[in-house]
Structure formats: C-alpha cells, structure tokens
Amino acid sequence: VITKIKARQILDSRGIPTVEVDLYTNKGMFRASVPSGDTTGMYEAVEIRDGDKGIYLGNSVTRVVKIINEKISEALIGMDPTLQSQIDQAMIDLDKTEKKGELGANAILAVSIAACKAGAAEKEVPLYKHIADLSGKTSPTLPVPAFTVISGGKHAGNNLAIQEIMILPTGAGRFEEALQMGSETYHHLKAVITEKYGAHACNVGEDGGFAPNISSFREALDLVQEAITRTGYNERIKIAIDFAATNFCIGTKYDLDIKSPNKSGQNFKSGEDMIEMYKELCSDYPIVSIEDPFDKEEWEHIKYFSGLGLCQVVGDDLLMSNAKRIERAITESTCNALLLKINQVGTLTEVIEVVKLAKDAHWGLVTSHRCGETEDSFLADLSVGLATGQIKAGAPCRGERLAKYNQLLRIEEELGDQAIYAGEDWMQ
Ligand code: PGA
Ligand code: ZN
C-alpha cells in the first residue's frame, strides 16, 4: 500500500520550477516529475504556479507541493498502488473542478505517474507492461521516434516562424537502429550547417534542434535533406514538420516572416495560400506528417487539407489533448492524428481514455514531450505500453530528451526477441 507521499520543487530543462513526487510503498520509493510547455490553451488541464513575481519570476510551485504533501497524501495513503483508476478518481473527486484547477494538474499528474511506477513494482512487472495491462492492450510496441533536428517558433531565438522539423527513421529494423540513424543524421546536419553558415549557426533550441538564423523553412528542409543524403539512409528516413501555425497567425493570415526583422510582406499568406504551400511541400520533400498547419480555431482549412490525404495531419494546439475537442475532430474528420501531451490531461487513467478515443478512430498517435522537460523517462514506457507507434521527445541530444530515448533502448533490450518496432506501421 501507499505509505507516504513527499513532493518537492525542482527545475525543468528550461530552468523553470516544476513538481517532483516521491511516493513510498512497502516495495520502496517511486519518483515522478512533470513537464511544462511554452503554449497553454484554455481547454487543457490547469497548471498551478504561485504567481509571486519576486520568486522565480512567478513560476514557483510551492503551493502545489503543499497540496500534494497535505491534501493528496491524506486521501491516498493506504491505497493499493495497482488500482490506478481508483487513485486517479480519488484525486479527481478531491479536486472537483473540470480542469483540475483546485489541486493543479501538475500536482495530480506527478502523483498519478508515481503511483503507476509503484503499481508496476507491486506487480513485479516492467512499467510498460503494467501500463499495457491498465489499457487492456497486450502487445507493447517500440515507437518510431520523431527527432527534432531544426528548431524555430517559440522554441528558438532565430528567425524561423515554424516550430520544428523532425526526422522519422521509419525504415529502421529496431529502435536501436532508429536512434543510431537519428544521431548520425543529427551530426551530419551539424556539419552541413557549419559549412554553410559557420559554427555559430549550430546553437540549439529548447528541444535540442539546431536553430540557424534563417527565416525560410524550405532552406531548413534542404539542410535536413542534405544531411540525410550524407548518411545514405535516404528513403529510410522521413520528415515531419510542426508548424505550430497558431503562433504566426495574425487575424486570418499567416506571417511566415513574423520573427524576421526585414519583413517584406511577401510571406503573408491566406489559408488557401497555405494549403497550396503544403501541397507543394508534400510533393517536393519526403514529408509524412504535418502538425498544426493552421490556427487552432481554423478547423475548416485543417479538415480540407487533411482530406487531401497527403500525409498524417496532427492536432496539437488544435486539440490540446482535450477529449471533447478530440471527439469533435473525429466526428468532423478534422485531422487524423493526436499529439498526446499528458500534462494537458492530468491523470494516467484519462490519458488511456484519450488514447482509446484516437485508436478507435484509427488515428495516428504521437506520445509527446513538452519543451520544458525533466529527467523522468516515464514517457518512454507510456509510448511502449500504449503502443502509440510514434514518440516525439526532441533531438537525439540533451539529457532530458535522451532520458526518454535511452529508456526505449533499455526496454527494447529487455524485450529481446519479443520486441516489436513500429517501423513502417508507425501510423497505426
Ligand atoms: P510545447 O511544444 O511543449 O512548447 O507546447 C511542443 C509541441 O508543440 O509539440
Ligand atoms: Zn506542436
């Protein structure tokens, strides 16, 4: 049973406070921490921060720590950690609000994850196996990683309006090979960028992608293509882009030069122009996935583009991992994949429900990190246990990103002959 819960404030990869929980049972201590993103929407679960501008610029989380140490501890001590849905329900009942604004989704998620780890230990099974059991899904699958190699948008201080360009080693035979292919391409890309613009252009963004100071994403795509050519992997590596277009949408137009000091006005595009641009991109590059191609409230354009069937169309800011938004998008055929950000949901039980929604609709599923991450590798086990087929955890560099990818290596090793890599079936 759960004997003690102790929370503390730690810092995430951006140096901003977040919550960590140590949950104790007779089997030992189980630790979990929660990530945080640059974009927060009105439909996601609420992250509570202290808001005192004099301390950590308002970002400290001591109130949340206290809530865990007092209210949540009191409610959960004595519970069986294998009963995930009862633990999560107890916190939902205690919170009583729709968006977890009373206790804080950051408090609830940290405890929910720690309890899941304790539950796996109680059953003496690997974490991914316990998660697979909880979801009713029995065949753990190693996801195809979407490695961020170019960063822009809110994640980097360059002129690139779009948020990230990713590479997917769909042609790898195993996850281990996918990681090698991703790493090699990343290092070739570093060389390509250095040759073209100089070493200073190799600085990286928040999720580890290179952030050369260019404003043209076609130029960035060409760099990535050149790196892939140098590795010789060619058609075994595909490209995905997160446009995060809400961040450069002004009224009904999209300003692809929004971060550039020398705006010419040439890149001010209507939704229709954007559709044409996406069509051209999909025919010029091996693009298999596009995330948030339009503003988060521009459902019609996304629907039209998705209907063309040119690639996977992922809803991130569009859906905010919110069950109601996902249901609407399924009914209206708005997009065909979900970017799953677990801190927008708040409990593991609800994460499993949201995943089920997406799977029943035959959508693609991307288990996703946030730009502010911690060393917690839970996301890796989650992606395997829920067999999401895809994981987006940043570049194949930087500790908080590698925490996830390295854990996937360990899981694959442990599964041995039984290991399945999603590979070409990444969208299932
Ligand atoms: P965020 O970015 O964590 O800053 O929200 C992640 C993403 O947009 O995919
Ligand atoms: Zn996104």
How does this model look, in words?
This protein has 428 residues and is α/β, with parallel strands linked by helices. Helices cover 38% and strands 17% of the residues. It contains twelve helices and 14 strands. The protein has helices at residues 62-76, 84-95, 105-123, 127-135, 175-197, 217-231, 271-284, 299-307, 323-331, 348-360, 378-385, 399-415; strands spanning 2-11, 17-25, 28-33, 144-151, 164-168, 238-242, 249-250, 253-255, 268-269, 287-291, 312-315, 337-340, 364-368, 389-394. Strands 4-5-6-10-11-12-13-14 form an eight-stranded mixed barrel, surrounded by seven helices. A three-stranded antiparallel sheet has the order 1-2-3, covered by helices on one side. Helix 10 (348-360) links the parallel strand 12 (337-340) and strand 13. Helix 1 (62-76) crosses helix 3 (105-123) and helix 3 packs across helix 4 (127-135). It is globular, with a radius of gyration of 21 Å. 57% of the residues are buried.
Q: Name the shape in a single word.
A: globular
Distance between the termini: 37 Å
Report Rg. 21 Å
- How much of the sequence lies in strands comes to 15-25%
Strand neighbour order, sheet with most strands: 4-5-6-10-11-12-13-14
Class inferred from helices and paired strands? alpha/beta
Average predicted local confidence, pLDDT: 96
Number of extended strands: 14
Bound molecules: 2-phosphoglycolic acid, zinc ion
Percentage of residues assigned to helices = 25-40%
- How large is the count of helical segments? 12
Low-confidence stretches: none
Please write the string of helix (H) and strand (E) elements: EEEHHHHEEHHEEEEHEHEHEHEHEH
Main β-sheet description: 8 strands, mixed, barrel
